[in-house]
Amino acid sequence: MKIILTICVLLMFVLDGFSEIHESATDETGKSVNEDGASFANSGSDGDRIYYGGYVTMNFSKNYSVIGAQPLIAYKLTPKLSLGTQVSYEYISDRRYAENQNGYNYGASIFSRLRLTPYFYGHTEFSVMSFNWFYNDGRDDRKIAPILFVGGGYSQPISANTWLNMQVLFDVLNHENSPYRNWEPYYSIGIGVGF
Q1: CB atoms within 10 A of CB 140
Q2: Which pTM does this prediction carry?
């Protein structure tokens, strides 16, 4: 896990060195304006307020692998605050038991993001996930868990309207069916368009 975090931090600094700084301009009233000078509040186009993207989950170890996707769509309430929704699907291969077990997790969530600086944001997310649990005797079971993620992320522009997002979230509910225990961090890297 430390290797992944180190790679993410290094990637963040490398990408920061190759990008140009994008800061939003303001008009005389302090409202954010786009390149043509139209204020955010009066832009008239909801399309400018919508962004989408997603995350890919990949976790490979000797005995346990996960591959998943989490597409998302969100709406900017203000230039700094947005609300959105996300669906999640993960395929699991677990070889820690006498018999290899395969399964999947799925769920949906709603989230909010607050842009703290041009690059950093705070993130809260309420999710309901259905997890596949495996047991030593070869049985498997499906359990539903509510999860309340709190954390933040870093957004690095990679083109005029596309961002690389890296975030660290913590499950603060720690429901008995949740796989995240004792403030175990959940890392994700993804692409956003329009964020």
Answers
A1: 14
A2: 0.71
